[in-house]
Each structure stands twice: as C-alpha cells, then as structure tokens.
Amino acid sequence: MRLFCSNHQLSTPPSQVPLSAAPARESTALRAPLLEVFASIQGEGLFVGQPQVFVRFAGCPLRCLWCDTPHSWTLPGLEDSREQTLSDFGRSSTWHTASEIAELVEAADPGGQRPLSLTGGEPLLWPAVIRSLRPLLPRRRLHLETAGAFPASLSRVLASLDHISCDLKPPGDLAPPVPLGGPQDFESAPSNTGEWRACRRAVLALISGRDAALKLVLRSGFEPALIRELLEDQARLAGDLPLFLQPVTATRGARAPSASEIEAVTEMALKLGLEPRIVPQIHPVLGLR
Ligand code: SF4
C-alpha cells in the first residue's frame, strides 16, 4: 500500500493559531505509536452507543487528574516497530505506518464501515499519519477525540476529518504537562492558564460550524468560576456546537459530581444559550472496553 506524504501547509490562517504552536516536522512523522486497535461501542459524547473501530495512539503530555488511560502517556523506543496483529496489542505500544494502521482497522472490522475513532493518548501528536489515513480508508468516517490543546496540529487535519469531539479542560483538573521527547518536534502543550486560554479559543474558532461536539468532564469540587470561563468561551466562539457534560467516572484522582453540582453547570450553560446534554460514560455500565 502506498504512503501519501503530507505537505507543510496550514489549512487555517496563521492569525488563528497561537504563535508558540509551531507545526510538527513532517519528515519524521509518518509513523505513530499505537496501543491498540479494536472494534467496540462508542462510550461517550455525540455518538454514544454507536459501533465504531478505535485506534488508540500512544503519547500524551497532558496530565488530567481523572485520566482513564495513563498507560497511554509515554512513547515507545523508536526501535520498537514490531509487526503486530490485533491480538498482539497489550499495554505497550509500537510504531506503525499509516498503511499498517489502515490494515489493522480493516482487520478489526472486516468489510465493515464502522466509523473510525482516533483516540489516545492525544491523536493530534500525529497529524501527518492522520492525514495519510484519510485516502487509505476512503469509505469510513474519521472521528477525532482530542483534548483541545493543539490548534496548529488540528488545523492540519481538519480537512481529513468527518467529526471532532473536543474536550473543554478545566484548568483545575490539570497537572503540569510532561514533555514527551521522542523523534519529532511536537506542538507545545499549554502549561499555564493563559496558554490554555489561547489554545482553547483557537480550537473553538477552528471547529465552530463543523461536524463537532464539545465535552466537559465534571468532577466533584470543581471551581464554578473556571467552568464559567470555559462555557463563556464556547458561547462566544462555538455556540452552535452541542455540549456534553460528562460526570467523571470515579477514579483515584476524582469523584463524581453531586446532582446539585451537575444542575448548577447545566443552568450556567443554559443561561449562556448553550445546549447542554448530560451523558455519563456507558463503558462501565456495559462492561465494555
Ligand atoms: S488528554 Fe486524555 S490521555 Fe491525556 S491525560 Fe488527559 S485524559 Fe489522559
């Protein structure tokens, strides 16, 4: 299968992208580390309940308190590019080309047309691979799940995507990012409130008017003022998009919000003219992956 090389063009005017967010180099970006490829049911957001195929990329510099995939954070060594079948994937990741990923997707859903959900980790660390996947999987919808922290990389893949599910991250839920190292210059992760604000606003401007949805994970004890700023940004820049309020699935780092906390955020969103929908993850209920 032929690999398609990406170019260096941004599909968005540079004025909409934070100056600190330099695009990743393309020349070393045509492999990406995968943790797993599998067919399952979408467990959250706009397409909850829909059968999909999932490609879980490794690598994430962010540190959400309630992260349910901390095993996705680190990158494998560059030498680790073993050939893998679907059953070989475990808790370690290995590097794959876009054509190998496309073959794994077809193996997970033979002859099927489930939408492909690109998840992680943070898939936007690998924009060149995502762009290369598009022509290799022409009949599948491509959905992206992203933290909403990488506007320059997002602008490079927008034309390849059929749907974007983007998080609104409350600053109080984030520990400082951890640099990834690895083979390429990744787009810088926001590391303070001001940088998060700039990235969030750039991302909201990029996805407004598109097939996209926003997700805000709510934990017990959130700071209302921080949540309000996120919602005000959405109302101003992407008020057309649905907003999914997702009570956190309790983890070591976070407890689920109370009914009154959920109601308070719902009211806040409604007063700003947003269309909130309260949808918890269904994986724990159904015992799904
Ligand atoms: S962005 Fe996703 S993978 Fe990264 S720490 Fe947050 S929840 Fe985990």
How does this structure look, described?
The chain has 289 residues and is of the alpha/beta class. The protein has one domain (32-286): Aldolase class I (TIM Barrel). Helices cover 26% and strands 19% of the residues. The chain is built from seven helices and eleven strands. The protein has helices at residues 98-108, 127-136, 151-157, 193-207, 224-237, 259-271, 283-286, and strands at 31-41, 51-57, 63-64, 94-97, 116-119, 142-146, 163-167, 174-175, 212-218, 243-247, 276-278. The strands form two sheets. Strands 4-1-2-5-6-7-9-10-11 form a nine-stranded mixed beta sheet. Strands 3-8 form a two-stranded antiparallel sheet. Helix 3 (151-157) links the parallel strand 6 (142-146) and strand 7 (163-167). The longest helix is centred in the C-terminal third of the chain and has 15 residues, at 193-207. The model is unreliable at 1-29 (pLDDT under 50). Iron/sulfur cluster (SF4) binds at residues 60, 62-64, 67, 69, 72, 120-122, 147.
Task: Give a short overview.
This protein is of the alpha/beta class and 289 residues long. Helix content is 26%, strand content 19%. Bound molecules: iron/sulfur cluster.
Amount of helix: 25-40%
Q: Overall mean pLDDT score?
A: 87
Shape: globular
Identify the CATH architecture.
Alpha-Beta Barrel
Low-confidence stretches at least 5 residues in length (pLDDT < 50)? Answer: 1-29
